[in-house]
Amino acid sequence: MVDATALTAVRIAQGRLVHALRDKGASPWQLRHLGVCSSTEMVLTQWLHQQPWLARQPRAVLAQHQRFAHGQYGRFWMAPPGGVWMSAALPWPNGEPSTGLFGLTVALALAEQLERYGVSAAIKWPNDLIVGSRKLAGVLPKLVFRGHQVRLARIGVGLNVRNPVPQGGIALRELLPPGRCRLRLWQLNALLALERASALAADPQRVVTAAEQRLWSTSVADPVSGEYWAVRGIGLDGQLLLGQGTRTTSWTRWGDSAGRNL
To answer: pLDDT, tens digit, for every residue of 98-136?
Structure first.
């Protein structure tokens, strides 16, 4: 049985977030704000199936707590109360899009929002934001194509705010005073970051240059061979460009979704 008081609190939170977005001049988002769910990704998929995507309004599902959240490679992601747990669908410029660059664009926009509050977060390619060596946030991107055109962009966002974190993680409550790490404020900032990312996508070179300036490391180890490669930059498709003397290579992490997988 659903707790009526908890349901009312969730609806109030959703209404306040809608008003805050409107006050910021943001797009008219369609929001679903949940107390607890198995996965915001699953809820968003069901929503897109039940209500076909018309590319008119971005949508987002936010949850206070996810029971079965996941990150890249399906790894379990802790999502207890106190953090921003969100899955969104939004229109995305066509051009020559790639999922890798899409994810980096969102990571960059979220980093910019954090910097406005004095939090300097590095981008750990391809999808994490870290402070020092500790993970603050992660994004999970997917572009859905119809033919050669982007039908919609989907993005999962997890941001530690006031929630307990596992070893190797960090939350904003450790970095900001209490008044600046309110959950609704960072739900709003995450949605505004998605708005910003959509605008940034029109200038891929700008995204690449800004992301390169925020990269977490100048070298990386090959997970198979253990060899170290110097990071030489980011490609316009989001690839990580690497070199070792006269040898060069690149890493690509994300694939694109062709067709009906929403």
So the answer is: 889 999 999 999 999 999 999 999 999 988 999 999 999
The tens digit of pLDDT for each residue in 69-108 reads: 555 545 555 678 899 999 999 998 876 678 899 999 999 9
Peptide bond connecting 177 to the previous residue in cis, omega within 30 degrees of 0: no
Q: What is the DSSP letter of 110?
A: H
Q: Are strands 134-146 and 149-159 parallel, antiparallel or unpaired?
A: antiparallel
Of residues 74, 112, 95, the one with CA closest to residue 237: 95
Q: What letter would DSSP give residue 215?
A: B
Taking the C-alpha atoms of residue 89 and residue 59, their distance in angstroms, rounded to an integer, is: 5
pTM attached to this predicted model: 0.89
| Count of other CB atoms within 10 angstroms of residue 148 | 8
d(CA 39, CA 135): 20
Residue 141, by phi and psi: left (phi above 0), alpha (psi -120 to 50) or beta? beta
- Give the SS3 label for residue 57: coil
Asked whether 157 and 190 are in contact (CB, 8 A), the reply is yes
Residue ranges of alpha helices (H) inside 142-254 are 183-200, 204-213
- The residues that bridge with 140 in the sheet, in sequence order, are 156
